[in-house]
Specification:
With 163 residues, the protein is mostly helical. The protein has 7 helices and no strands. The chain has one domain (2-157).
């Protein structure tokens, strides 16, 4: 179970005594930044396609890990489980050109949407199990993704250069 725990707590960041969801999202952002720095010589469109395939492939295992986590912690949607934040953040940055500014903006927007849980996230998280754990963050990621693509378009339209 230790390996599963390592993943569903996003490298144990879910045990943060303060704001474990934010800690998990910070891990997701750090991984995203690290990936883009390590693979900066790879064509961005190839990296975007890799990320899309990665996100699609980890949705089902994430749901299963969420099921295992509920049994492990003997509670519904345990706060230590932050793999949902990692998945949601990676959805939020799909096909976004890399910049530190966009990485941080996606972090902020994702946390806002994850906290306020806009429709239909607010009603779907009650599904229970791994699906209930993951679905509200998937939706928060999709809301953030829409905002991020709008931001990218506006930055391009107004010729705003990002660091």
């Amino acid at each position: 179970m230790k390996i599963k725990e390592f993943f569903f707590t996003a490298f144990y960041s879910g045990y943060s005594p303060v704001a474990p969801g934010t800690a998990g999202t910070l891990v997701a952002m750090a991984l995203y930044i690290l990936e883009n720095l390590l693979f900066s010589d790879i064509d961005q469109s190839s990296l975007h396609m890799f990320n899309l395939i990665f996100v699609i492939l980890i949705i089902y295992p994430s749901i299963k890990l969420g099921d295992a986590a509920e049994k492990f912690y003997k509670s519904k949607d345990p706060q230590q489980v932050v793999l949902d934040e990692v998945l949601g953040y990676w959805i939020a940055v799909l096909f976004i050109p890399f910049s530190f500014t966009f990485a941080v903006l996606a972090f902020i927007l994702f946390r806002v949407f994850d906290i306020i849980k806009p429709f239909p996230a607010n009603s779907l998280e009650s599904l229970g199990g791994g699906l209930g754990i993951m679905i509200d963050d998937i939706i928060a990621g999709l809301y953030t993704l829409a905002c991020m693509h709008t931001a990218v378009h506006l930055f391009n339209y107004y010729n705003i250069i990002l660091p």
